[in-house]
Amino acid sequence: MPKAKGKSRRHKYSYNLNRKRLYRSARRRAAPRIACSHIRQAWDPTKSVAQNLAEMGLAGDPNKAVPIPKKKLLGMEAESNGQEQGKQLVRKPYVLNEMEYEASLPEKKSNTLSRDLIDYVRYMIQNHGENYKEMARDEKNYYQDTPKQIKRKINVYKNFYPEEYKDFVASLKQEKMEVQ
User: Fold this and answer.
1) Which whole-number Å values give the CA distances from 48 to 54, 55, 58, 100, in the listed order?
2) pLDDT tens, position by position, 80-113
3) Which candidate among 101, 149, 164, 177 keeps its CA 20 to 30 Å from the CA of 171?
4) Cα(117)–Cα(155) distance, integer angstroms
5) Can you tell me the distance from the alpha carbon of 146 to that of 35, in angstroms, rounded to the nearest whole number?
6) What is the pTM of this model?
7) Rounded Cα gap, residues 165 and 167, in angstroms
8) Sequence-distant contacts of 94-100: CB under 8 A, at least 24 apart
9) What is the pLDDT of residue 16?
10) How far apart are CA 88 and CA 85, in angstroms?
11) Where does the signal sequence lie (predicted)?
12) DSSP class of 5
């Protein structure tokens, strides 16, 4: 197999190029990447990262913001000195308030089960009740789940959809009553 056309040539090193200056200027131009929209809106590009965070009431280095005392020096005196040093002027408290409010909102449950798993579990419960050994021998058990695995899948279904499971079991009981 032939070589690529440009590979046979020797690459020349440019001794006159100042690579340190190029690297430094590229680093200086890069702005910090900010994930939180509240911080991004209140950010002042003319100030340093530490100054911006201090104005918002945030800490850049958690070790400096909340130091761990090595030894307690005379109890209360050490605590009062730490509190005086930690006080800073917060000019943009709304950023911190918005972030606290957003964090206090309840988290939405986004976990769902696949439709195939739901159908599988409902089929097994409908045909076998709570007999897991029979479920394991059923021909619809394509993946050859053991009785414990099937029980675990049914419990997952119960936890994800408790109301739906109760309605399903109630409808099964009604069907049994009608048959008898």
Assistant:
1) 10, 11, 13, 24
2) 554 445 466 888 889 989 989 988 998 877 778 9
3) 149
4) 12
5) 45
6) 0.45
7) 5
8) 94/42, 95/38, 95/39, 95/42, 95/56, 95/57, 95/58, 96/56, 96/57, 96/58, 98/38, 99/36, 99/38, 99/39
9) 83
10) 8
11) none
12) G
| 92 C-beta neighbours (distance < 10 Å), count | 19
CB contact set of 82 (below 8 Å; sequence gap of 6+): 67, 69
> Using CA atoms, how far apart are residues 172 and 53, in angstroms rounded to an integer?
60
Instruction: Report residue 142: phi and psi, to 5°.
Output: -65, -40
CB atoms within 10 A of CB 146: 13
Alpha-carbon gap, residue 96 to 178, rounded angstroms: 61
Are residues 2 and 62 in contact, defined by beta-carbon separation less than 8 angstroms?
no
State the residue for tokens 């089960």. 113
Single out the residue of 29, 54, 30, 28 nearest to residue 43, CA to CA: 54
Could you please report the per-residue DSSP string of 78-140?
A: HHHHHHHHH----S-HHHHHHHHHHHHSPPP------HHHHHHHHHHHHHHTT-HHHHHHSTT
The structure tokens listed for 84 are 């005086």
User: What are the tokens at 85?
Assistant: 């040093």
Distance between CA atoms of residues 39 and 53, nearest Å: 9
Chain-centroid distance, C-alpha 163: 28
